[in-house]
């Protein structure tokens, strides 16, 4: 039977980083994964350029039943630490917006850097994991390539998002097996879907993007909103999806810099002969302005002829559009899984299970979910480093 000091399950962001942090003289570290290639999510992240961290990383950028849990790991391994590694590897990067750092080139440079950093550890792909047990001395993992025995076991198999590239609920099963509690999981950073009524507006506008602001359930974001054939997407929708639960209505401000009712009323005096649609088109994409006018029966109407009440109704429609999603696109397209292994059962400094010494959980499988913008990778690096050093 093969014997190692540290066995890491999952060769994604957290698993690869943990292997690099755990390497010490004479220590045998093995990483196993069932996929064909390591770091598949890194490869597809950030539109292929990997938003590898965020300079504004702080515990308040993460959702968790214990909002302070991430503080320890993030304070010991921060965004600047990862940027230093990226610089040392000669990978050029740029800040896109709001502290989000992206590679100038391909995301796979990050995976290459992680693989170089863990030289000395062994990585074995295309290895199915069957069972995990503990015999009182160490862990035994049955795999498609035989049994591996390990003094310490790190579970880094991620969450359930994007099963097509290898995501499974394996980490949650292992946690349950060893008596750790779970916080209910659901798809997050995910497009929202709508019923026919709203789709009548969204569908013809598919591809139209507008800067919008949404405040909901403790989250507040301002960013691009994208109409799709099935509902709404874009960064502001992905962000708010983490704060939305089914059945809730969202209030969307489609023109956050303008009080539309006041602007239209003022416009009536200055350029009253224009149509309502073109007046509205000063603040919104023309197609969206036209669709809203059509919805309210004002396609040809002149601004000058509209009473205050009607302009106020349009203002409310634009500045406070109320929509009730019927659901999300689910794990098929979600960037992350909200919820996961309950942090009450993990040590925040080391990510070790409180009741099972030697067993660690890191990365997305833990109930720590970042906002969109590089926070989730930063959590993967920080939690992996905490476990790797422990
Ligand atoms: P990760 O999912 O990376 O790795 C888990 C590994 O475990 C995988 O290699 C998988 O094959 C393996 N595995 C799973 N089940 C197994 C089993 N049963 N047996 C064996 N192996 C198993 N974040 C961010 O900060 N910036 C960004 O730009 C993006 N962009 C982005 C785009 C898209 C499309 C997605 C889906 C996600 C993002 N993310 C992101 C989120 C980010 O990718 C995610 O938070 C991290 O990859 C999580 O790292 P982990 O190592 O925990 O899981």
TrEMBL record:
It comes from the Bacteria. SUPFAM superfamilies: FAD/NAD(P)-binding domain, HI0933 insert domain-like. The keyword Metal-binding does not apply. Its cofactor is FAD. InterPro entries: BaiN-like, BaiN-like_dom_sf, FAD/NAD-bd_sf, RsdA/BaiN/AoA(So)-like_dom, RsdA/BaiN/AoA(So)_Rossmann. Residues 186-336 form the RsdA/BaiN/AoA(So)-like insert domain. This is NAD(P)/FAD-dependent oxidoreductase. It comes from Paracoccus fontiphilus.
């Amino acid at each position: 039977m093969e014997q190692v000091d540290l066995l890491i399950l999952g060769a994604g962001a957290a698993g690869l980083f943990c292997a690099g942090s755990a390497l010490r003289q004479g220590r045998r570290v093995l990483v196993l994964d069932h996929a064909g290639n390591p770091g598949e999510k890194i490869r597809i992240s950030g539109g292929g350029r990997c938003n590898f961290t965020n300079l504004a990383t702080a515990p308040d950028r993460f959702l968790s039943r214990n909002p302070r849990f991430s503080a320890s790991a993030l304070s010991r391994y921060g965004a600047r630490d990862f940027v230093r590694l990226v610089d040392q590897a000669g990978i050029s990067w740029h800040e896109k917006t709001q502290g989000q750092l992206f590679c100038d080139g391909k995301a796979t440079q990050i995976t290459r850097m992680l693989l170089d950093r863990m030289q000395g550890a062994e990585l074995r792909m295309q290895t199915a994991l069957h069972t995990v047990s503990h015999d009182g001395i160490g862990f035994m993992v049955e795999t498609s390539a035989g049994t591996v025995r390990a003094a310490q076991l790190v579970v880094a198999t991620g969450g359930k998002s994007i099963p097509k590239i290898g995501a499974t609920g394996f980490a949650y099963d292992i946690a349950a097996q060893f008596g750790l509690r779970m916080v209910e999981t659901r798809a997050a950073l995910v497009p929202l879907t709508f019923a026919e009524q709203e789709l009548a507006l969204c569908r013809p506008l598919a591809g139209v993007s507008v800067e919008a602001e949404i405040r909901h359930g403790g989250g507040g974001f301002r960013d691009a909103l994208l109409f799709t054939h099935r509902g709404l997407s874009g960064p502001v929708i992905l962000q708010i999806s983490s704060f939305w639960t089914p059945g809730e209505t969202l209030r969307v401000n489609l023109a956050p810099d303008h009080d539309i009712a006041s602007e239209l009323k003022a416009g009536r005096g200055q350029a009253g002969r224009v149509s309502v649609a073109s007046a509205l088109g000063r603040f919104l994409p023309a197609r969206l302005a036209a669709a809203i006018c059509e919805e309210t029966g004002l396609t040809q109407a002149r601004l000058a002829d509209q009473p205050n009440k009607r302009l106020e109704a349009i203002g409310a429609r634009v500045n406070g559009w109320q929509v009730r999603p019927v659901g999300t696109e689910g794990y098929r397209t979600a960037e992350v899984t909200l919820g996961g292994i309950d942090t009450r059962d993990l040590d925040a400094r080391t990510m070790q299970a409180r009741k099972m010494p030697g067993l660690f959980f890191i990365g997305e499988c833990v109930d720590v979910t970042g906002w969109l913008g590089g926070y989730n990778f930063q959590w993967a690096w920080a939690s992996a480093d905490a476990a790797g050093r422990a």
